[in-house]
Every structure is written in C-alpha cells, then in structure tokens.
# Entry
Amino acid sequence: MPVGFTEDGSLLVAMASPTNVLTIDDIGMMTGRRIRPAAASVEDLNLLLARLVRMEDSIEDIVDEQDEQDDESDVNSAMPTPTRRSSSSFTRSSRRPWSTAPRTST
# Structure
C-alpha cells in the first residue's frame, strides 16, 4: 500500500512481504517511480485500509451534500425572483394610475 514519498521522489510502499521483488517491480512499472518497500504487518495494513475506506466514504458524503446544495441552488436560480422597484423607477403616470393625460407644467 503506498504511504508516501521519500526525499529522492521514490514511492514508499508498506508491504506485508517487502521482499516480493515481482510485486515491487510491478508497482514500479505501473507508477513509473522507484519503489522503497517498508515492512508492515497484515493487521496494520488492514487497519490502514479501513481508515482509508472511512475517509473515502466521508469525502463522498461531503461531495454528495455539496451536489445537493448546488442542485437546490440551480433550482432556486431558475425560479424567477420577485424584484422591487424603487420609487424613482416609477413614471409619473404609474404613480398616478387614475391619470391618463400627461402632466403639464403651469
């Protein structure tokens, strides 16, 4: 299981069998990096894997919640919102709906 990088850019891989040259070579071929194997117990690897799965689930939950909020935002933005006109945007005739004739100055 990849756990980090070394100072020289090699991939640090925790392995239950760090002497398994075939696996190390395969990982190196797939990643294009030099591999630094590190010994780890099967139990430790399983615990790490369980933590990563829980973390992935948490991230998926956060992404799903964000998607839902974005969907709600999209629905709300698609709905027309009532606008208030300021009194300065009214014309004289709209302020006096009973008067159809233009106002003349005297």
Q: What stands out?
A: The two ends are 91 Å apart (CA to CA).
